[in-house]
Amino acid sequence: MSTDQPIADDQDHTPYLHVRPLSTDRDLVTVRGDLDLHTAHRLADALHSLLLTDGHSVLLDLSGVTFLDSTGLTCLITGYRTARTTGARLALIAPSERVRRMLALTGADQILHSYPTPDSVPDRQ
Fold first, then answer.
1. Best exposed site among 2, 25, 63, 75 by fewest CB in 10 Å?
2. Contact assessment for residue 35 and residue 15, using Cβ atoms and an 8 Å cutoff
3. Which residues, including other chains, have CB under 8 Å from residue 110's CB and lie 6 or more apart?
4. 103 touches 95 (CB < 8 A)
5. What residue spans of the chain are helical by DSSP H?
6. Closest to 27 (Cα-Cα) out of 67, 95, 83
7. Which residues, 6+ apart, have CB-to-CB distance to 43 below 8 Å?
8. Average pLDDT along the chain
9. Number of Cβ atoms within 10 Å of the Cβ of 33
10. DSSP-derived pairing of the beta strands 5-6 and 16-23
11. Tens digits of residue pLDDT in 28-56
């Protein structure tokens, strides 16, 4: 998996995706910038491949996400569903205020668990 991939380069805050293994069964995926119609497919592709292994945890750092639309939200929910189906786990790390608001408005905060730091995520939920 490559790191620091540009997701799009036509916006002021060039979004990027960074995947960093934390251990053999845990990866930290950092997303910054907009998570929307133009960028969510790159995150979806990365999450899908990471969430296919039973017992694997993907920690998704959303602290730098400046905008989240319905496509970005769908990407997060699809990742959650994939994780449930495969026995993997998806946890959100420090979602930005804009992301937290969208999650709360839609009720997605009830199924997508958030933690303040990667170290605060328990080994199993």
1. 2
2. yes
3. none
4. yes
5. 40-50, 70-86, 97-106
6. 83
7. 7, 17, 29, 31, 35, 72, 75
8. 89
9. 20
10. antiparallel
11. 999 999 999 999 999 999 999 999 999 99
pLDDT digit string (tens) for 91-122?
999 999 999 999 999 999 999 999 999 999 99
Between 3.40.50.620, 3.40.50.720, 3.30.750.24, 3.90.1150.10, what CATH number should domain 33-118 receive?
Answer: 3.30.750.24
- Under the banding of pLDDT at 50, 70 and 90, the label for residue 124 is low
Owner of token pair 């993907």: 58
pLDDT tens by residue, 65-79: 999 999 999 999 999
Residue whose structure tokens are 């990471």? 50
